[in-house]
Design goal:
Strand content: 35-45%
Largest sheet: 6 strands, antiparallel
Helix content: 25-40%
Strand order of the largest sheet: 2-17-21-20-19-18
Number of helices: 6
Number of strands: 23
Mean pLDDT: 80
Structural class: alpha+beta
Order of helices and strands: HHEEEEEEEHHEEEEEHEEEEEEEEEEEH
Low-confidence stretches: 17-33, 366-396
């Protein structure tokens, strides 16, 4: 029994000794724990930024005519349909001209009758003149014949004019294409009786296409300084020429309409949407930074984390910024920042102000302010440094 008690005491002593003992290896690892590595980039100042704007409009034919007839009648033939291409002078639609042809025959018959009467008058005049030389004809008889001849000649001219009007009416009973184009609408069918001036077909010109773009009046002055115009229709961009710089503000859209001439080689359809690209330069000092370098602060204020040297150690400092412009990947900001300061490029959720960090390497930022999209090489550099950072952690 005494032996069991002694053995129990020895086991308890050993266990207490094990609990009170410290692990030197664990302490060393705790003290040797490395600082958190971060990707940084230097702040490069800029005096302006560019906002990429697009204004929308429509493609319109240079000419659009609703073709009608000058005389009413029944539609006899329709020679074209929607989508057909026509050339200038091609017949498009013909009205029934049977009545006009009957009237023309009647006028020709009356003209022949007057001609026969004139022949008779001329023969009587010759006969009376011979009798007058012999003293057997009175002067009044000659005057009557001359008057009848003049009346018949006037009647003949009237019939000739009526016949010409009839021929013109027959010609105008056919609608001809006034220019090269394409039929876009048809409003009548064969057999319809239409009135004078009623539209029958819509003809769109296939040449001299235009684009009408509405722009805000406040941007008109900046736009007029541009000399190289480009419009996008669908996925294709076309160089265009400004035809009209705008004369008034549209009361409905409150925009000024600009007319652009599309190239003849442009494959566009009437009514397609056209987009005018414009780089709006805003002169204000600031810095381009990636969106991943921003974090939200109090009351909707945006912040960045700046590296600050404190006693030869780099720590995180929060700075407030104002976002002037942003695109899909980057933002143009201003605020409590200085040139060439290093800011944390990404991973801000892992950091807090005052934390000591170890920058891997300053990532370059290449700017091109001639367009709205600032071209950065940050994303590729980040990927490479993150891989190196992973290798370093694996070694540690």
């Amino acid at each position: 029994m005494q032996r069991i008690t002694i053995a129990s005491l020895l086991v308890a002593v050993i266990l207490l000794a094990g609990c009170n003992s410290t692990n030197p290896d664990h302490s060393d690892r705790t003290q040797a724990q490395p600082q958190l590595s971060v990707n940084t980039l230097p702040l490069t100042p800029s005096t302006y930024y560019t906002v990429e704007r697009e204004y929308v409009g429509m493609v319109q034919a240079g000419q659009q005519a609703n073709l009608g007839v000058e005389l009413g009648g029944k539609v006899s033939q329709i020679l074209v349909d929607v989508g057909d291409k026509v050339k200038e002078g091609d017949p498009l639609l013909i009205l029934d001209t049977e009545l006009l042809k009957t009237q023309a025959d009647e006028l020709l018959a009356r003209q022949a009758q007057v001609t026969a009467q004139l022949d008779l008058i001329e023969a009587n005049l010759k006969r009376q003149q011979k009798l007058k030389t012999k003293g057997f004809s009175a002067e009044s008889d000659l005057d009557a014949l001359n008057s009848q001849r003049d009346a018949l000649r006037a009647n003949f001219r009237q019939l000739t004019a009526s016949l010409a009007a009839n021929q013109l009416q027959q010609k105008k009973s056919t609608i001809y294409a006034p220019y090269h184009g394409m039929i876009s609408e048809r409003y009548v069918s064969q057999g319809d009786v239409i009135n004078t001036g009623a539209p029958t077909l819509t003809l769109l010109a296939t040449t001299h296409k235009e684009a009408h773009i509405g722009v805000p009046a406040k941007q008109l002055t900046k736009l007029m300084t541009n000399t190289d115009w480009t419009l996008r229709v669908g996925t294709t961009s076309y160089p265009v020429t400004l035809l009209n710089p705008g004369v008034n503000v549209d009361t409905a859209s409150r925009t000024v309409k600009l007319r652009f001439a599309l190239p003849e080689t442009a494959h566009t359809i009437n009514g397609e949407l056209a987009y005018l690209h414009f780089n709006d330069i805003q002169h204000q000092s600031g810095y381009w930074i990636p969106l991943s370098a921003m974090t939200d602060g109090l009351r909707g204020v945006w912040n960045v984390f700046v590296l600050r040297d404190v006693e030869d150690k780099l720590t995180i400092e929060r700075r407030s910024i104002q976002v002037l412009h942003a695109n899909n990947d980057h933002a143009y900001v201003t605020g409590a920042l200085e040139n060439n300061e290093q800011i944390v490029a990404d991973g801000l959720h892992r950091l807090v102000p005052g934390q000591r960090v170890l920058p891997i390497k300053a990532l370059p930022v290449h700017l091109n302010n001639s367009t709205d999209d600032a071209v950065f090489s940050v994303r590729d550099a980040m990927s490479q440094h993150l891989e190196n950072h992973a290798d370093n952690e694996a070694e540690l």
